[in-house]
């Protein structure tokens, strides 16, 4: 009986070993499968008079070859690789868009200013004027096209976030169901691991790690709790929470990720890291928003500066220049959760101080203290309204904020100075005759009745420039007469027909070299004439006169056209450090640098992922050569066990035959 029992136990044990080996071979290409191994143990021995006699072998466990540390490393690298890939995939599209010479903004700006320069060379030319309008329309179209592409990217991003959230929910539900199956299987087996279910759950965890960074905590019953964000429990045992994508409270054009469970909803957008979802959020924060803001900054600068300069010229009909482009405006978005009655409006101030950024204005105490955060770099400006009612204003970063009393503590507003500027730009001048190339004023020395100069000195005055159309055209010519005692205090200078005095001493070498009026020494002069200035040089004689009058009939005058063309070279952006094209180039460079970094990161993370997968595969992967060897070994053991049973049967038959005799 002993040898038979031993043989039977061995036969059954190696049959299970053969089954397990066959199971490994059958699943060699099954994704997520972990190789299984049969652990053997001796049967309890029998006590005899000669001591304990062995009774055979048994299957102690069918163990899954698995390394939790390596599996965690794979999930971690999977999360990082998916984040980098999602970030790079989207950023590279923007990079390609901005650097394409056929559709980028830089060629359109160059063509626009080239047309301005051609026009300034021949300001009355109908062809040159039409060329300005054509290139202006092309520039507007280019701004619109790029802004649409940014908006399309934002819409695609929102949809991808929604799709990813749905996939996360589906995977979380599956993990919860597998958790329940594992709990049931462990209970039914008396504690044995359900290896194939564990593999199924591991595969689901890897899929979830592609979407978002996760952490796990095992439970005593075999379930695995899964957390995302900053500790939000996505799966607890057999129960799964939900994530959803909703219009952001602060800006409905963007999407927020919310976590939903039995306790309610919680916005977790800023807490999400890693995975494709984290990559999408980082792309929006680091690439899409800044790039669209910077594109709008260029548009706002061109609109503001060209409009301001164009209004300082005269068109072919002698009318002051009309607005060339539409005027930009600043978006102010109320948070949907605001409870107070206060509001905020914003207008452009000094365009050179404008930043390509969003801002968040928050009422700190609901009365007079506000906190303005520049979201691009976190810079904070504290605004104290002093309890002013109903309004107070603040000048920040090229904006004038008007804050209405009535906000409750915690109320917030998103301010977007440039986000919509590229979309809003439009060409308002359609008639070539309305282009204002002519400077509104001209100066000339006094003439006699025959048109001959009457001044005896060698002084000269440059053609006047104005910085505002206020007071133009002049109601009457403005005369400047030189007197050795212009102010009644013995100081030489020009007495103006409006009563102003320009102090000018021809004996002062610095002033003889040229004096710009108005200057720091005479800051109040010329105020009634829109900041008009000119340069006086030379040595005037007593009574010498100059006349500043309206530039009537100056069809060939190109001074305002030249000023418009010169805007291309002015460093009027980014606190006076950049031109329009410099500003755009910085945006292109920034996007390109970040996109390149994302590409390198994606390649590195991909390589790390493959290395970690290889390390895990060395533990849990199926090796067909090894399994074939095991199959032969277990087959031989099975045959030997069967032979043992055959020997036991022969011995038994021999004993029976002996008894019968």
Description of the structure:
- The structure is a single chain.
- With 661 residues, this protein is of the alpha+beta class.
- Among the domains are: 104 residues, no CATH class; 122 residues, no CATH class; 110 residues, no CATH class.
- Helix content is 43%, strand content 20%.
- The chain has 11 helices and 27 strands.
- β9 and β10 form a beta hairpin.
- α1 packs antiparallel against α11, α2 packs antiparallel against α10 and α5 packs parallel to α6.
- The two termini are 22 Å apart.
Keywords, separated by commas or semicolons:
661 residues; alpha+beta; 5-stranded antiparallel beta sheet; 27 strands; 43% helix; elongated
